[in-house]
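To assess whether ligand presence alters the predicted conformation, the chain was also submitted together with zinc ion. Input:
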Amino acid sequence: MDRCALCKGKLRKHKELKDEVEIKGWKCSKCKETYFSSNELLKWEIFSGRRKNNVRKIRKVGNSFTVTLPNTFVRADNINNNDLAIFKRHKDGYILQIVHL
Ligand SMILES: [Zn+2]
């Protein structure tokens, strides 16, 4: 994206504090319309407290990266220690399929 969808003005990189969360995007140099990627808007939702459920931080443990499962899913789907998880690519990220042993 390098032109404004509204006026075709030139877009410039832009940073904005929204609810005390810095988000990066683009701003039209002509009409001042702002644009943000869906990833930046998700980041804003998480850090502004608007999205609380089912968000986990990815952590490095040794040479691997780990992420915990929300307890509501563990209880609802009866997920147990040593069950398997299959990651499948999806247009928005990944789908996690649990295989019970
Ligand atoms: Zn514009």
